[in-house]
Amino acid sequence: MRLTTKGRFAVTAMIDLALRCSEGPVSLAGISERQKISLSYLEQLFGKLRRYQLVGSVRGPGGGYCLARPTSAMTVADIIRAVDEPLDATQCGGRENCHDEERCMTHDLWATLNVKMFDYLSSVTLADLVDQQLSKGGADVAVLHDARRGGARQRGKVVAFSR
């Protein structure tokens, strides 16, 4: 089992977005600069996140991305699923053909691990991750505290949530 950079970067970018979206749409260029993630890679990820209705986009000057629902209603599992990240510890991808086209002796072990991983990632919300960042403080503490106070705000047709 491994979580690739696609899933890690998607979660990181969503935390960054959640911390800043109360001020309005957040540009991918800003996320790219702050998180050291390629802009073209972020564009691919956010296309998938938008199709999964986790983020909304605002075009034009001052445009960018906003969260499409409250951070408390978004889990890490939602984000990873949205970017097509497989979470599978089995060697066979769940097809039960891992040992000479037969089920291997450890299949149930790895299948159970898959369920436990998914349950754990489904229990961690984006709000939990934002709260962790806020509790750490740091250079952007003023921006982060403003983001925490932010409520729903209309920007075109997108509603930005911070909690």
Which terms would index this structure?
163 residues; mainly alpha; Arc Repressor Mutant, subunit A; two-stranded antiparallel sheet; 4 strands; 50% helix; elongated
- Residue share in β-strands: 5-15%
The tally of strands reads 4
Backbone shape: elongated
Q: How many DSSP helices?
A: 7
Helix content: 40-55%
Strands of the largest sheet, in order across it?
1-2
CATH architecture: Orthogonal Bundle
> Which structural class best describes the helix and strand composition?
mainly alpha
Q: If you compute it from the alpha carbons, what radius of gyration comes out, rounded to the nearest whole angstrom?
A: 18 Å
CATH class descriptor: Mainly Alpha
Total domain count: 1
Report mean pLDDT, rounded to a whole number: 81
Major sheet: 2 strands, antiparallel
Series of secondary-structure elements, N-terminal to C-terminal:
HHHEEHHHHEE
At CATH level 3, the topology is Arc Repressor Mutant, subunit A
**Unreliably modeled segments:** 141-163
